[in-house]
Amino acid sequence: MEDFGVGIARADLNRVMEPFGQVEGYLSRKVEGTGLGLPLCKALTEAHGGEFRLKSTLGQGTCVEVFLPAERVVALDTAAVKGFD
């Protein structure tokens, strides 16, 4: 996933990977969130034997890469999913 939002400073990358970790305090925050998304994604990825990568540049955006082992990927049977097109 990649976005071109506010980005995260290199010095803050470890902080945002902690549960509830956020760069700004709740009173000065301009971006909403709980601080759980990135740590949860990393934990789920690693629980499946995968690799989680986070790259970000302040003022330019963020890129998150998730790599899962092939044996953990299950093909979706689209015929069995109602409304899938």
From TrEMBL:
Residues annotated as domain Histidine kinase: 1-72
Source species taxonomy: Bacteria, Pseudomonadati, Pseudomonadota, Alphaproteobacteria, Iodidimonadales
Keywords, in A-Z order: Kinase, Transferase, Two-component regulatory system
GO biological process annotation, one example: phosphorelay signal transduction system
A Pfam family it matches: HATPase_c
One Gene Ontology molecular-function label: protein histidine kinase activity
Enzyme Commission identifier(s): 2.7.13.3
Domain of life: Bacteria
EC top class, as a word: transferase
Catalytic activity, as annotated: ATP + protein L-histidine = ADP + protein N-phospho-L-histidine
Name of the protein described by the UniProt record: histidine kinase
Family matches, as InterPro entries: HATPase_C_sf, HATPase_dom, His_kinase_dom, Sensor_HK_Regulatory, Sig_transdc_His_kin-like_C
